[in-house]
Amino acid sequence: MMMSDIAKDRTAHLLKKRGSVSSLSNHEFRRKEPHGRTKDSVSTVSYMDEPCQPEDASRLTVHMENTYQLGPTKHFPVVIVNHILKDVLTTYLQEEQYEPELCRQMTKTISEVIKAQVKDLMIPRYKLIVIVHIGQLTGQSILIGSRCLWDPKNDAFASFIFRNSSLFALANVYIVYFE
User: Fold this and answer.
1) Which residues face 161 on adjacent strands?
2) Which percentage of the chain shows pLDDT scores above 90?
3) What is the mean pLDDT of residues 103-107?
4) CA torsion angle for 178, 176, 80, 163 (degrees, to 10)?
5) If DSSP codes are grouped into helix, strand and coil, which group holds residue 59?
6) What stretches of the chain adopt beta strand conformation (E)?
7) Residue 3 gets which letter from DSSP?
8) Left, alpha or beta for 54 (phi > 0: left; psi -120 to 50: alpha)?
9) Could you report the per-residue pLDDT of 139-158, keeping only the tens digit for each?
């Protein structure tokens, strides 16, 4: 007994709509049963990688389970980050003279470079804040302060001050543990 063409089309349409590809259109498999009759079979392949319609993308969201981890498994390496700050500031500012527009752009560039290098350390579950100040060195003084809700057990910071003949730079990296 063969499956009718209408039933095959309906089955193929339903399987494609569900995210499966059916072999009905390409191959039909007949299997002999022990009593000498033949039986039609349908083989399907399901997929999850590529949704066929935009609304299917919302179904494929990943839901993360709670880990109930209250502290970091690996602490923030302040010494290594201090070396990163020193290297980046020295590399970018060693030969520079203070010019307001140049220093404004350099602040953004240096912040992004520091952030990228600290992220390369792959310290999980920490939020990263990088702040860079560059100013002209003309005998003035400056006070810079910051405030944050802080857990001294898990949160940390690194700081480095650079000076040459015409400018100073202060780079701060704050790392806050994200529970």
Assistant:
1) 170
2) 41
3) 94
4) 150
5) helix
6) 20-22, 29-32, 38-41, 44-46, 126-136, 156-163, 167-177
7) P
8) alpha
9) 888 888 888 888 888 899 99
Given a contact cutoff of 8 angstroms between Cβ atoms, the answer to whether 132 and 111 are in contact is yes
**Number of C-beta neighbours around residue 160 at 10 A:** 21
Query: Measured at the alpha carbon of residue 85, what is the angle toward residues 79 and 90, in degrees to the nearest 5?
Result: 130
What six digits make up the tokens of 43?
């083989």
Check: CB of residue 127 under 8 Å from CB of residue 144: no
Kindly provide the b/e burial profile for residues 94-121, where b requires at least 16 CB atoms within 10 angstroms of the residue's own CB: eebebeeeebeebbeebbebbeebbeee
Instruction: Please tell me the distance from the alpha carbon of residue 126 to that of residue 179, in angstroms, as a whole number.
Output: 9
Query: 83 exposed, middle or buried (CB, 10 Å; 0-12, 13-18, 19+)?
Result: middle
User: In DSSP terms, which residues pair with 45 in a beta bridge?
Assistant: 21
Beta carbons of 131 and 171 less than 8 angstroms apart = yes
Tell me the two tokens of residue 156: 């940390």
Structure tokens at 49: 């990688």
Q: Is the pLDDT of residue 73 over 60?
A: yes
